[in-house]
Design a protein that fits this description.
Chain lengths: 441, 308
């Protein structure tokens, strides 16, 4: 008969045995089918739906031995996942899209992104406009541009007609004059309809939208020097003028305030007469308020006609075990026919391969896209810096600008404005210096 | 059986029992060590290094990360906001949940106890993100319900999510709404555990409701109150999702809190060593507060027992 001690021993062995068995079983139960599994992650829900419903069925017909597993995450979660998974070289992240050149370059520099084969590089060079190729630092193509976003001015034609303004403003002065005619007030003096909707909240967004005007004044937040060195560049005439413009619009001309709704939602609701945003807003307005009478134009400029052009790219992880299949998948889903189909029916971000796509039928239906698809020949394009610290620079700059916008004492105060810009430069340069990327003054 | 043999038999039996218990809890302990213990120790060690998550090397920087964060406006702002939030949230949710628990514990509420518990617990089980998005509209300066009610009273609109420190109050309001049901249930269980004979004896001695509350209920509820204070303090310092959705989602840092600051430094700015140092400081602050709560409770208990 079993003694008590032996019973305990048997019970222990049973527990350990169950645990070990579970561990071994979990290893053995991994499905090893004969299909190549590729894992992709992106952040646009409508793109996710489109790929699942349209592209993958076509792909499977030609590649029955490859299975594509796609996950869609919000952008912050996507960035976090990539930041964690790529360095860990886990093979559950093979293809990832939706990132700009700057964030991707950080991973490329440290060897976490696979170098594309020659036929992929050739495809990129043949299909993409030159400015996209120039966006890659050093000309090294390490990802496939998938879609792009251009920025412009959205203006409400009905509001403009009511105010007796014939067309979209082209210069800063025209923009200020138009905003004053367009603004409407509540009985308590607060703004009921802003003449122009400024970006007043959200540090990173403030930096980007501030840059839209800053570049048209000939400035930039960062200047890149040879050897991939950088300096913050706000404490100059362009920076002062741009901040002064924002302060004047808020407190001198009172064409916007913090109470009224902002951004694309405000424009859709008719609570602002003009604002600056990316081309995807055209698709948003098409879906939400198709009856809205509006048009688009280039970003009003002070001295330089230019606009932000943003690039979303798809890359393959170095840890991917099936890199050829992964790059083939990237090229397959990037085919012009899908890009144009998606652009027309869904999202609104333009496909990157504009060199090989005919948009004339799209423009016939939605002429508002013209300034983005076929901008004036003299409109320049600037790209966001590829410095790996861009998120932090934007955050620090945006926080300081957010505080400055609330500072009424900066009205007619050039000394105060110069102080603000000098402080921002000092903070940014400290960050850049800590990373060993600061250029000599 | 001789005494010696009996002793040996009892000892062996105890050893086997101990080994058996050890094996049973080993999986959980192993999980805890792997998922909690190791990351905590690793984070502490990482706080003395500089690492961007991508480089193979993690150079030793000593206390530089700690020195940097002690003078960092962003970290100090996050610490200040989180502390203010805790000072508002903890007493409010504790007091309100205790008050509600006492209310629904009354004999005439006996039939409706389940209904009230259910109603107050609904916010607890609602997903935090949709709830916060809903409240963002309630707090909206132009279209929000709160400002609508204020306008009915002739009061001016409040920028609930745009002004500082109003945004902190808004986050507290949401958090109290979200969590009061959880602590109410804890208090309710505590109230139910108090033997009714104390109340009966008090009634016989002529005690009124206030005396019963202050002399019987509250003293006997002290361990539960301490538990709720500790839990709510820890939860308060871990606030993230609600502050992020209500006030930070657009990138605005008007309500920068500690966890968001750590998240931003680690996963947006790729400064893992610095973020680890921030996390260690946060752990130290929360541990200190928890220790102070326990110490205050023990001191009070000693004073009460001395008073007789």
């Amino acid at each position: 008969m079993f003694t008590r001690g032996k019973k305990y021993l048997l019970a222990m062995l049973l527990v350990v045995g169950v645990l070990l068995g579970g561990l071994l079983a979990s290893q053995a139960s991994e499905v090893k089918g004969d299909k190549i599994q590729l894992y992709e992650v992106l952040c646009e829900a409508s793109l996710f739906d489109f790929i699942q419903s349209t592209i993958i069925p076509d792909y499977i017909k030609e590649n029955p031995n490859v299975r594509i597993n796609i996950t869609c995450l919000p952008l912050p979660e996507l960035e976090k996942k990539i930041a964690i998974v790529l360095p860990a070289r886990i093979s559950t992240l093979d293809v990832f899209g939706s990132l700009g050149i700057g964030p991707l370059f950080r991973y490329y520099e440290t060897g976490y992104i696979a170098s594309p084969p020659d036929y992929v590089v050739d495809y990129v060079k043949e299909s993409m406009p030159d400015w996209m190729l120039e966006a890659f630092p050093g000309g090294d193509i390490f990802a496939v541009p998938t879609w792009q976003s251009q920025y412009g001015l959205f203006w409400n034609k009905t509001h403009f007609a009511e105010a007796g303004i014939s067309g979209a403003p082209e210069s800063w002065d025209e923009m200020v004059e138009a905003a004053q005619k367009l603004v409407k007030y509540n009985p308590d003096g607060s703004v009921a309809r802003s003449g122009i909707s400024l970006r007043l909240r959200g540090a990173a967004g403030i930096s980007q939208k501030f840059s839209l005007m800053l570049h048209t004044a000939g400035g930039s937040i960062l200047t890149e020097f040879p050897g991939r060195k950088f300096r913050s560049n706000l404490n100059n005439q362009a920076g002062w003028d741009t901040l002064e413009l924002h302060i004047d619009l808020l407190y001198k001309y009172k064409v916007d305030d913090y109470v009224v709704k902002h951004d694309y939602e405000a424009f859709a609701l008719g609570m602002t007469s003009m604002f600056q945003r990316g081309d995807w807003v055209v698709a948003y307005l098409r879906d939400q308020v198709p009856e809205l009478n509006y048009d688009t134009a280039i970003v009003p400029y002070k001295t330089v006609k230019t606009s932000l052009a943003w690039l979303g790219n798809t890359a393959v992880a170095e840890a991917c075990k099936h890199q050829k299949e992964a790059w083939d998948w990237v090229l397959f889903k990037g085919q012009p026919k899908y890009g144009k189909l998606f652009f027309e029916n869904e999202f609104g971000y333009m496909p990157a391969a504009t060199k090989v796509i005919d948009f004339s039928d799209v423009l016939a239906k939605f002429p508002q896209w013209k300034v983005f698809i076929a901008p004036p020949a003299d409109l320049g394009k600037w790209k966001e810096s590829s410095i790996p610290l861009l998120d932090e620079i934007y955050q620090v700059t945006g926080e300081s600008l957010e505080a400055a916008f609330k500072d009424k004492s900066l009205l007619d105060n050039p000394t105060g404005i110069k102080r603000v810009m000098a402080e921002i430069d000092e903070k940014n340069n400290r960050i850049i210096e800590e990373a060993g990327l600061l250029a000599a003054e | 059986m001789t005494v010696q043999a009996e002793k040996r038999r009892i000892f062996a039996s105890g050893v086997w029992k101990g080994l058996f218990c050890f094996c049973i809890i080993l999986p959980i302990v192993a999980l805890f060590v792997v998922l909690r213990g190791y990351p905590i120790v690793n984070t502490f060690l990482l706080s003395f290094r500089k690492w961007d998550m991508l480089s193979a090397s993690k150079p030793w920087v000593g206390f530089r990360n700690y020195a940097k964060l002690l003078f960092s406006p962003q970290f100090l702002e996050a610490l200040k906001n989180t502390t203010i939030y805790s000072l508002l949230f903890v007493p409010t949710v504790t007091g309100l949940s205790l008050f509600l628990a006492i209310l629904i514990n009354r004999p005439k509420m006996k039939r409706f106890v389940s209904i009230y518990q259910f109603v107050y617990f609904i916010p607890v089980v609602c997903s935090i993100i949709p709830s916060a998005i809903l409240w963002r509209w309630i707090f909206d300066a132009q279209y929000g319900l709160l400002n609508y009610f204020l306008s009915l009273l002739g009061l001016p609109r409040i920028q609930w999510l745009m002004d500082y420190p109003t945004v902190l109050y808004s986050i507290v309001i949401f958090s109290v709404w979200k969590n009061v049901g959880y602590y109410l249930v804890i208090f309710f269980v505590g109230l139910k555990a108090i033997p009714t004979l104390y109340y009966e004896a008090a009634r016989i001695d002529g005690a009124n409701n206030l005396q019963i509350l202050t002399k019987i209920t509250m003293p006997l509820l002290k361990p539960i109150i301490l538990l709720v204070l500790v839990l709510s303090t820890i939860a308060a310092y871990n606030v993230f999702a609600v502050a992020y959705v209500l006030a930070t989602e657009t990138g605005s840092t008007i309500a920068r809190v500690l966890v968001y600051e750590i998240y931003q430094q680690a996963f947006l700015f790729f400064k893992m060593g610095y973020a680890a140092a921030e996390a260690v400081v946060m752990l130290a602050v929360v541990s200190l507060l928890t220790f102070l709560l326990f110490a205050a409770s023990k001191k009070r208990a000693r004073e009460t027992s001395k008073g007789g």
